[in-house]
């Protein structure tokens, strides 16, 4: 292998070079020294015995769900999308003196490569430790040219983590199947799924199964479903196998002419096989009050749990997850997302022995999968009503939190108490639990509470090392801004009484309005998932902050107020949204919006509002609108609401109907910079918030 020095690529602006990067604030290396060293011992063993150039470690599990433990331990990265190429033992790099002549050291023996997307290019500077070459995943040619320059020909990867995404990225490289760590996200604990009532799901599972079977091609007798969010939606069940999500890790085989097969965690299988009630377990899981910040990531719901009788009604037989690889069916159509199903599944399952090369089966599978995911994305009236009530109760909690933060500052901008990011996260969680009437099921993602320069890191979440002080008692405010991006899952099988004491005193200016009745009735039933971002001023904002905030607000309003024809896709809305930032020479490096699951994943496809959003937006889809602006080492701004797409009354057009009910900080707005249309939208939104709270 030719020696390639770091100076050979320093002129490439698309590659971020982190030299001897051991951030004192992010000491994963010190805290996980044993795990770290064991990892590299295994790596060096595999490298030597399999003649490898390196090893691939992605941030997902075999279902393509987030499972970042391995990646976190070897790099420090905590984001949701990362791929590490390990060439050398980073644990020894810290002992080398690079201060004078780092350029003399060759890349392959002293650097590893980290690939991520544009959302995390700032974050990696704060989290990665060691020597890394960081590249944006969209720069595929740069990645491939660099690997060619380094003469990388053979990389190892766990086959159950190697999906089509990796194969396409490293298409000219031999990927060798080498299991490294346990790739499954299965827990040894019994996390029993629960049943979603039909009047909440809007449709019973038998009807959904019939719809699926009718979509199958004539030549196919069976369908393999590997999309776990779709399985949970299809069977009207939810679980807590993955943090911040209601999905149940499983595989499902649907048969046209006989009973179906569900492959599920062996602990759940054993529980259902015995059909015994584990009283201790049920009592523990039914505690609805979440008492600590660490427990909100696992969904907890007081509801009916699955049993053998439920699956008998659906004509489903239950098997342990591992037995999926032993089953063989003739004429199987494989329903899967080609980008996520792993080569390990292909190689180990008799079901798919010949299907990867069968173009007709892949084509039919793509159409089949597309129609099903679209059906899930278009919410029915019961799901939408659940979302509406969930956003009302969530809006109350977030508004209470924002008003609480403002109450900690006196008229002279002096802080009355101490407050940091972690305590703010905890307080927001307390407000959500307090106002939910027992319907809070868990957070829908890890809360982003980012003050000042931390806000410039798009997906920043505070920890003990990065925790920033927001307010210091007796001190004048720093005149900076706080970005709060958070969400929750809510579930209630029964209608709840309208409790005025819960909704009272949200803000002083709204408290005299007593005309509004919730949903024009005295009951409500929160069932859905929320995701909201607000940027608020801590003290008086600067002129620059107000100018940029107003520009971001105009972008949000431009998208939210758009009426569009049937056939419009997310890419077109994304272009409309960015207009006012482009006018001042700014932009943001993430998508404008994403779909949202119903007590499932907070990010759901197939639709999105982004430069890649080719999917047509349709009536009943729920989507976020969240433009932003991020100034490195200064602050970040983002304004996010969720919307349901609805038909316009008088013509063949569609519009966005707002679900999120959280006031926008008026201190951050320069009203002179708003158009008449902007002002009308803002006034209307303010009125909606006012009416919703009292």
TrEMBL record:
Pfam families from the UniProt entry: Creatinase_N_2, Peptidase_M24, Peptidase_M24_C
Taxonomic lineage from the root: Bacteria, Pseudomonadati, Pseudomonadota, Alphaproteobacteria, Rickettsiales
Keyword set, alphabetical order: Aminopeptidase, Hydrolase, Protease
All residue ranges annotated as the Peptidase M24 C-terminal domain in the record: 653-691
Source organism of the structure: Lyticum sinuosum
GO MF assignments: aminopeptidase activity
Domain Peptidase M24, residue spans: 390-494, 528-646
InterPro entries linked: Creatin/AminoP/Spt16_N, Creatinase/aminopeptidase-like, Pept_M24, Peptidase_M24_C, X-Pro_aminopeptidase_P
PANTHER family xref list: XAA-PRO AMINOPEPTIDASE 1 (PTHR43763)
Coiled-coil positions: none
Protein name stated in the entry: Aminopeptidase P family protein
Keyword NADP applies: no
């Amino acid at each position: 292998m030719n020696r390639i020095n770091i100076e050979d690529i320093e002129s490439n602006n698309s590659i971020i070079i982190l030299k001897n990067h051991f951030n004192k604030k992010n000491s994963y290396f010190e805290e996980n020294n044993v795990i770290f060293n064991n990892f590299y011992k295994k790596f060096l063993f595999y490298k030597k015995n399999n003649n490898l150039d390196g090893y691939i470690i992605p941030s997902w599990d075999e279902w393509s769900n987030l499972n970042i433990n391995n990646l976190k331990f070897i790099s420090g990265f905590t984001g949701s999308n990362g791929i590490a190429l390990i060439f050398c033992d980073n644990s020894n790099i810290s002992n080398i003196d690079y201060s004078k002549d780092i350029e003399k050291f060759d890349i392959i023996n002293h650097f590893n490569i980290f690939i991520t997307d544009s959302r995390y290019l700032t974050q990696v500077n704060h989290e990665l430790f060691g020597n890394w070459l960081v590249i944006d995943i969209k720069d595929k040619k740069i990645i491939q040219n660099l690997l060619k320059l380094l003469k990388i020909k053979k990389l190892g990867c766990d086959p159950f983590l190697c999906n089509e995404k990796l194969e396409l990225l490293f298409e000219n490289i031999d990927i060798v199947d080498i299991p490294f760590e346990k790739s499954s996200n299965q827990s040894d604990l019994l996390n029993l799924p629960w049943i979603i009532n039909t009047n909440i799901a809007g449709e019973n599972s038998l009807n959904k199964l019939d719809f699926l079977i009718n979509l199958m091609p004539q030549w196919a007798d069976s369908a393999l479903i590997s999309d776990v969010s779709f399985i949970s939606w299809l069977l009207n069940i939810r679980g807590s196998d993955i943090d911040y999500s209601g999905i149940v890790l499983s595989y499902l085989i649907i048969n046209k002419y006989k009973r179906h097969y569900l492959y599920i965690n062996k602990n759940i299988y054993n529980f259902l096989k015995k059909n015994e009630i584990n009283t201790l377990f049920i009592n523990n899981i039914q505690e609805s009050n979440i008492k600590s910040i660490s427990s909100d990531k696992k969904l907890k719901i007081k509801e009916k749990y699955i049993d053998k009788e439920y699956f008998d009604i659906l004509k489903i037989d239950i098997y342990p997850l591992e037995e999926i690889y032993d089953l063989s069916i003739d004429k199987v159509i494989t329903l899967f997302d080609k980008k996520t199903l792993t080569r390990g599944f292909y190689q180990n399952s008799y079901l798919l022995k010949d299907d990867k090369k069968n173009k007709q089966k892949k084509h039919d599978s793509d159409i089949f999968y597309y129609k099903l995911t679209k059906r899930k994305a278009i919410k029915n009236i019961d799901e939408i009503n659940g979302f509406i009530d969930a956003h009302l109760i969530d809006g109350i909690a977030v508004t209470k939190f924002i008003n609480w933060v403002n109450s900690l500052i006196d008229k002279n901008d002096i802080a009355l108490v101490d407050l940091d990011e972690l305590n703010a996260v905890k307080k927001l969680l307390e407000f959500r639990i307090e106002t939910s009437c027992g319907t809070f099921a868990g957070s829908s993602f890890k809360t982003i509470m980012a003050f000042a320069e931390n806000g410039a890191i798009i997906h920043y979440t505070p920890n003990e090392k990065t925790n920033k002080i927001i307010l210091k008692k007796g001190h004048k405010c720093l005149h900076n801004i706080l970005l709060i991006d958070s969400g929750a899952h809510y579930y209630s099988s029964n209608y709840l009484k309208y409790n005025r004491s819960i909704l009272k005193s949200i803000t002083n200016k709204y408290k005299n309005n007593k005309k509004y009745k919730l949903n024009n009735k005295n009951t409500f039933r929160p069932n859905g998932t929320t995701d909201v971002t607000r940027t608020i001023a801590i003290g008086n904002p600067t002129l620059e902050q107000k100018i940029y905030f107003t520009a971001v607000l105009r972008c949000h309003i431009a998208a939210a107020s758009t009426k569009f024809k049937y056939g419009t896709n997310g890419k077109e809305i994304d272009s409309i949204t960015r207009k006012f930032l482009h006018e001042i020479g700014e932009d943001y490096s993430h998508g404008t919006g994403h779909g949202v699951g119903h007590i499932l994943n907070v990010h759901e496809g197939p639709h999105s509002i982004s430069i890649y959003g080719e999917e047509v937006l349709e009536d009943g889809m729920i989507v976020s609108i969240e433009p932003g602006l991020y100034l490195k080492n200064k602050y970040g701004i983002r304004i996010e609401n969720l919307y349901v797409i609805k038909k316009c009354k008088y013509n063949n057009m569609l519009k966005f109907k707002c679900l999120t009910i959280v006031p926008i900080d008026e201190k951050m707005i320069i009203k002179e910079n708003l158009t008449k249309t902007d002002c009308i939208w803002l006034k209307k939104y303010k009125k909606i918030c006012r009416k919703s709270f009292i």
